[in-house]
Amino acid sequence: MSPGTHNEAEAEFLSGYDPTAFPPVALTVDLVVFAVANKALHVALVERGAQPFLGRPALPGGFVGPAEDALAAAHRELAEETGLDLAAHRVAMEQLATYSAPERDPRMRVVSVAHLVLLAADGKLPELIPGTDAAAATWQPVHGLDLATLAFDHADILAAGLERLAGKMEYTTIAASLLPGEFTISALRDIYTAVWQGELPAGNFTRKMRAFLTPTGGKVQAVGAPASLFTVGSEWISPPWSRPRD
Predict the structure, then answer these.
(1) Could you tell me the sign of the dihedral formed by the alpha carbons of 87, 89, 92, 98, in that order?
(2) CA 230 to CA 108: how far, in whole Å?
(3) pLDDT band at 85; cut points 50, 70, 90
(4) Which carries the bigger pLDDT value, residue 36 or residue 22?
(5) b/e per residue, 117-153, with b = 16+ CB within 10 A?
(6) Cα-atom radius of gyration of the chain, to the nearest Å?
(7) How far, in whole angstroms, is CA 135 from its chain's centroid?
(8) CA atoms in the 13 A half-sphere facing the CB of 2
(9) How far apart are CA 44 and CA 142, in angstroms?
């Protein structure tokens, strides 16, 4: 079949195609945005200002527009609901998973593409400003959060985001994404403690991690003596860490 014949056949097929023959499915995005401050892992949450789940905490997110892909919608929805412009911050972002349980949204059949965002914070969390249908937007400590209060299936999404981060910290230097571009080994160790909720001996941590970091030559004043600054030298940690388990 020549290209011209193929195009004609396709056009004829599409002219008689009925998209209403299938049930409609809406597409949304949800974002798990993590940041560390005061040695604690925080997540950005909004208070829903509209039904369903009015007044309940939820992950920021919303519907994908007809002219958007999921990534563009994730950036837009986060900015609209929390005031966070990811382009203005040092972040690492990746697609987490797709959630498609038929009853996950009481309004209609909704499939959500969840994203994991790691935001670098230098001791202070950026201000969140609620907008659109968010009545409030706040940073909340992850550990100790009552997941059962979250709207929709956001407890599952948040748990998956935490597990993704904690798991990848065993064999990659992804933890440094939660820090400025230059950081001390002590600050990196604080990230591990905040996420894993388990102390790693300082000496062992330094000896292991130095092999995967690059010294910048800079120093910052610390307790007792100036501390050296580093950047990530390697993406991979080998042999990997053995994460503390409950």
Answers:
(1) negative
(2) 49
(3) very high
(4) 36
(5) bbbbbeeeebebebeeebeebebeebeebeeeebbbb
(6) 22
(7) 21
(8) 3
(9) 9
Residue 48 pairs with which residues in a beta bridge? 134
Length of the chain: 246
* 3-state DSSP assignment of residue 138: strand
Answer for the pair 32, 161: CB distance below 8 angstroms, yes or no: yes
Q: What is the pTM of this model?
A: 0.93
The label of the residue with tokens 């193929």 reads 6
d(CA 109, CA 24): 7
**Both tokens of residue 242?**
């053995």
- At 19-31, the pLDDT tens digits run 888 888 999 999 9
**Strands (E) located in the chain:** 26-37, 40-48, 57-58, 61-63, 91-99, 110-119, 134-141, 213-220, 227-232
**CA separation for the pair 49, 33 (Å, rounded):** 20
Amino acid (1-letter code) at residue 242: S
Query: Taking Cα atoms as reference points, which of 41, 235, 46 lies closest to residue 121?
Result: 41
Q: d(Cα 108, Cα 112) in Å, to the nearest integer?
A: 12
Q: Report d(CA 194, CA 171) in Å as an integer.
A: 17
For the cut 60, the answer to whether the pLDDT of residue 179 exceeds it is yes
